[in-house]
Every structure is written in structure tokens, then in C-alpha cells.
Amino acid sequence: MVRIDKVMTSEKELELWVKHLKPVQGQGAEELRKAILKCYDEAVTNGLIEEWKVLVLKRNFE
């Protein structure tokens, strides 16, 4: 098991979190899952987190 510490905690990361998660609030687990994955993908694209963390997250969602 790989532990992911301190992911999505900086101001810019949290702004992305709100950007992706707020619109799907109350829309169910599947929409929430999709939003989380999009958020992490954008964080990688912007160089905010390392790609391996997203790969671990995706594996945990399967």
C-alpha cells in the first residue's frame, strides 16, 4: 500500500478542488468520483502534484 501524504493542501490545489467539487455537490458518488479525478488530472497538468499520486488514486477507485 502506498500512502499519499499532503496532497491538495496548498492554496492553488484547494482552489482546483473547489472548482471541480463544488459544481457536483449533492449529485451522487459517481459524479463526485469523476470530479475528483478531473481535479487531480488538472493538478498534474499544472505541475501542482506528481503524476504517480493520481495513478494511485485511480487504482483505489477501481
Question: How would you describe the overall organization of this protein?
Answer:
- With 62 residues, the chain is mostly helical.
- The protein has one domain.
- Helices cover 63% and strands 0% of the residues.
- It contains 3 helices and no strands.
- Helix 1 packs antiparallel against helix 2 (29-45) and helix 2 runs antiparallel to helix 3 (51-61).
- The chain is globular.
- The chain starts with 10 loop residues before the first helix and ends with a helix.
- The model has no long low-confidence stretch (mean pLDDT 88).
Strand content is under 5%
Number of domains: 1
- Kindly provide the radius of gyration, computed on alpha-carbon positions and rounded to a whole number of angstroms: 11 Å
Average of the residue pLDDT scores: 88
Number of helices: 3
**Class from secondary-structure proportions:** mainly alpha
**Terminal-residue CA separation:** 15 Å
Q: What is the makeup of the main sheet?
A: none
* H and E string: HHH
- Low-confidence residue ranges: none
Number of strands: 0
Instruction: Name the helicity range.
Output: 55-70%
Shape: globular
Protein name: PH domain-containing protein
Organism: Fontibacter flavus
